[in-house]
């Protein structure tokens, strides 16, 4: 009998280590990148060149679309009337002449119109803050009866075209209910309608809702009245949104045209927009364009100075701490 060598059995191969599966929370927390171009493509040299080329072209195009009308207005005032009507129009003025700006300031009495506009815009700003901040604070923190219904009615006014309410508003200003006052040719004809703004009330209320109620309750326990809480706690915390409402109200009063045209027929009390329109028929075209440039400068400066406040206030919705 032949002895056969018994070969030992080969050990079974060890199972491959399993890759641990990420938990559901980890998968949800992982950033998901979706787009036409992957992040890996953007890290390559060709991807960077294409990306920056497209970005530069898009930014340049949009900048030209928004800036070119301003450039055309500023340079149009430097051209002569014959050069303005020339076809095809010239992109640059043949001779840079700043005389139309001086003529516009003197002949159109822009100084008087500018002071009137500053007075109307400043008064509208103060009354808007007093009325809208008080209304938003009451709807947000005091929680009056039928507060939601009142807010809904305020917001419903945003759906009404402004031209629809011009006649009722004019009749109201001409004969103020109960008191019977005629507010035409007075600053109150501009100030009072500007205070009733449902959009501002909504913005302020949403911001006031984000203020912790415990902070106000602690002040109430210390004996502070609702007016004291509003002045000492709510207003200092709400500076961003108050800045936004202030800027928007001033710009709206500055550029308004139809309403001042109706309620301020006296030439000595007209704002810039109405005064320039009334005297434009007897002015050369380049002088008129120069007057429009001068009237636009304050609003443009306000935007450039406070643009960061506008963006911060519109996106502010809560408090950290």
UniProtKB/TrEMBL annotation:
<dbReference type="GO" id="GO:0005886">
    <property type="term" value="C:plasma membrane"/>
</dbReference>
<dbReference type="Pfam" id="PF00528">
    <property type="entry name" value="BPD_transp_1"/>
</dbReference>
<keyword id="KW-1003">Cell membrane</keyword>
<keyword id="KW-0472">Membrane</keyword>
<feature type="transmembrane region" description="Helical">
    <location>
        <begin position="229"/>
        <end position="254"/>
    </location>
</feature>
<protein>
    <submittedName>
        <fullName>Carbohydrate ABC transporter permease</fullName>
    </submittedName>
</protein>
<feature type="transmembrane region" description="Helical">
    <location>
        <begin position="118"/>
        <end position="139"/>
    </location>
</feature>
<feature type="domain" description="ABC transmembrane type-1">
    <location>
        <begin position="114"/>
        <end position="306"/>
    </location>
</feature>
<dbReference type="InterPro" id="IPR035906">
    <property type="entry name" value="MetI-like_sf"/>
</dbReference>
<feature type="transmembrane region" description="Helical">
    <location>
        <begin position="151"/>
        <end position="170"/>
    </location>
</feature>
<dbReference type="InterPro" id="IPR000515">
    <property type="entry name" value="MetI-like"/>
</dbReference>
<keyword id="KW-1133">Transmembrane helix</keyword>
<keyword id="KW-0812">Transmembrane</keyword>
<feature type="region of interest" description="Disordered">
    <location>
        <begin position="1"/>
        <end position="31"/>
    </location>
</feature>
<comment type="similarity">
    <text>Belongs to the binding-protein-dependent transport system permease family.</text>
</comment>
<feature type="transmembrane region" description="Helical">
    <location>
        <begin position="190"/>
        <end position="208"/>
    </location>
</feature>
<keyword id="KW-0813">Transport</keyword>
<feature type="transmembrane region" description="Helical">
    <location>
        <begin position="49"/>
        <end position="72"/>
    </location>
</feature>
<feature type="transmembrane region" description="Helical">
    <location>
        <begin position="287"/>
        <end position="306"/>
    </location>
</feature>
<dbReference type="GO" id="GO:0055085">
    <property type="term" value="P:transmembrane transport"/>
</dbReference>
């Amino acid at each position: 009998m032949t002895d056969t060598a018994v070969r030992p059995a080969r050990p079974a191969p060890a199972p491959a280590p399993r890759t641990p599966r990420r938990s559901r929370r980890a998968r949800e927390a992982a950033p998901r990148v979706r787009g036409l171009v992957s992040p890996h493509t953007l890290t390559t040299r060709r991807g960077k060149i294409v990306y920056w080329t497209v970005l530069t072209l898009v930014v340049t195009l949009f900048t030209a679309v928004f800036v070119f009308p301003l450039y055309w207005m500023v340079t149009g005032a430097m051209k002569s009337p014959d050069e303005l009507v020339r076809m095809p129009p010239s992109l640059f003025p043949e001779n840079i002449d700043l005389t139309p700006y001086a003529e516009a300031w003197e002949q159109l009495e822009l100084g008087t119109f500018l002071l009137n506009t500053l007075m109307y815009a400043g008064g509208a700003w103060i009354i808007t803050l007093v009325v809208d901040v008080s209304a938003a604070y009451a709807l947000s923190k005091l929680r009056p009866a039928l507060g939601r219904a009142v807010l809904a009615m305020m917001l419903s006014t945003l759906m009404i075209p402004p031209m629809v309410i011009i006649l009722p508003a004019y009749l109201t200003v001409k004969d103020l209910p109960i008191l019977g006052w005629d507010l035409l040719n007075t600053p109150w004809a501009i100030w009072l309608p500007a205070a009733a703004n449902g959009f501002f009330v909504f913005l302020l209320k949403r911001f006031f809702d984000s203020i912790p109620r415990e902070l106000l309750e602690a002040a109430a326990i210390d004996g502070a009245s609702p007016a004291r809480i509003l002045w000492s706690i709510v207003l200092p915390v709400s500076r961003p949104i108050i800045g936004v409402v202030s800027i928007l109200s001033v710009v709206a009063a500055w550029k308004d045209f139809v309403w001042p045209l109706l309620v301020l027929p006296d030439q000595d009390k007209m704002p810039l927009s109405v005064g320039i329109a009334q005297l434009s028929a007897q002015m050369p075209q380049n002088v008129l364009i120069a007057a429009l440039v001068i009237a636009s400068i304050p609003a443009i400066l306000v935007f450039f100075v406070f643009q960061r406040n506008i963006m911060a206030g519109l996106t502010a919705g809560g408090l950290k701490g």
